Amino acid sequence: MSKEESFSKDFSEFDNYQFGHHDKVKHIASTGKGISRDVVSKISELKNEPSWMTDIRLKAYEVFEKKPMPSWGPDLSEINFEEFTYFIRSTEKESDQWEDMPQEILDTFDKLGIPEAEKKFLAGASAQYESEAVYHKLNEELGKQGVIFLTMDQAVKEEPELVKKYFGSVIPASDNKFSALNTAVWSGGSFIYVPPGVEVNTPLQTYFRINEEEFGQFERTLIIADEGAKVVYNEGCSAPKWAKSSLHAAVVELVALDNSRIDYQTIQNWYKNIYNLVTKRAVAKKNATVTWLDINVGSRITIKYPSVMMMGEGARGEVQSIAFANEEQLQDSGAKMIHGAPNTTSVVTSKSISKGTGRSSYRGLVKVLKGAKNSSCRVECDALLINEESRTDTYPVMDISEDDTQIAHEASVSKVNEDQIFYLQSRGIPEIDAMKMVVNGFLEPMVKKLPLEYSVEFQRLVELELEGSVG
């Protein structure tokens, strides 16, 4: 048996994606395929929303109709918006008890380990299945401190003034075609408000699950940290193995008021049929800090650039980004840092791995506005290529309108070193294990900074993605 045949046999049990199960769940309601003004109105009607939200949706749909598809990045010409279903309801109502959910949905989240994570690590948890949350619960002690953790659908009805004030304030519908689409057909997502001086150091988490093929998931997340408040939020995503494509186009808005801090941590592990087109942006006021941890594995195409607009003096933004592009996958990720006030600081650290025909791209913007004196930004991009076919690109943009500024940018591209692999093999280490050691060494400086539950999961995902990469 040849080495190639041996490796194929050894790793035939792996399909590089561990959440690919599909469950047969009966739908309570669905808008069917296609998008129109009537579909947008129907979504609002099914949710029994107030008229002001219906108006926001319909105006956004008009923007969506007029906005062109993005032409500056990955090719999205194969997306046909009429092929997707934009709203599916899987349960009559959400629950605050796991055992109250339909067994088919409960089985899904049991496989993903979400109930166990809530018991061990989380201060509150929400689980979204298709278009809406099916489970939602907040730690009682946080509730007594005034912390609000709702689904976005609940917040529209229970906290209308906060929603009216902040919804679309960071990412307007007019920002891009997919933010307009999300604003028109959004469903689910999380709403968090942390009162002044309250600290939520144990994570709140939402897990988003797509189950059907040719489905569009459009969660909307809005987090407000009031003055001196702190909050940590985790997000996870997955979908089944389907031959036909689905669309995930979320919008995430963060508002960090004076002296507050928001840590937003994402690990997205999509199957390769998903178009993952997400807009994430934060505004940081005086002495506020916003950090994004953004891990992207899988998907057909990912376009995502977490952003921080530092609009108060002393504000700080940080993005840590890790992307893994496997066969026929394109990870177009990066960050945008906008310095709009003096003494602001930002850091961007990007690591990417490309395997087979996979392609990873770093696309970043650093913009310093006039008057943002003594601002500083450091950008570091490192890419690792597993083999000859893989590719990586870097597209940095520096737009500096203030002289009193410190900007540093460095980028490196390396290939897996055959001498390292040979040396490790000479010490009796199998080739695939040697490959994993080299890749883990490349990622180690960033992975050691991850929360424990994220670092364990991510390292396992990387190992699965690497299976079959040698031979």
Description:
With 471 residues, the protein is of the alpha/beta class. It has 2 domains: 292 residues, no CATH class; 49 residues, no CATH class. It is 26% helix and 37% strand. The protein contains 12 helices and 24 strands. The strands form 3 sheets. Strands 5, 6, 8, 9, 11, 12, 14, 16, 17, 19, 21 and 23 form a 12-stranded mixed beta sheet that branches. Strands 4-3-7-10-13-15-18-20-22-24 form a 10-stranded mixed beta sheet. Helix 3 packs antiparallel against helix 9 and helix 7 crosses helix 8. The longest helix is centred in the last third of the chain and has 17 residues.
Layout of strands and helices, then pairs:
Elements: H1 3-10, E1 29-30, H2 37-46, H3 51-66, E2 88-89, H4 103-112, H5 114-121, E3 124-129, E4 132-138, H6 140-144, E5 148-151, H7 152-158, H8 160-166, H9 177-185, E6 190-194, E7 199-209, E8 216-217, E9 220-225, E10 230-238, E11 246-248, E12 251-256, E13 261-270, E14 274-284, E15 289-298, E16 301-304, E17 307-310, E18 316-325, E19 330-339, E20 345-354, E21 359-368, E22 375-385, E23 391-400, E24 405-415, H10 418-426, H11 431-447, H12 452-466
Parallel strand pairs: 3-7, 6-9, 7-10, 8-11, 9-12, 10-13, 11-14, 12-14, 13-15, 14-16, 14-17, 15-18, 16-19, 17-19, 18-20, 19-21, 20-22, 21-23, 22-24
Antiparallel strand pairs: 1-2, 3-4, 5-6
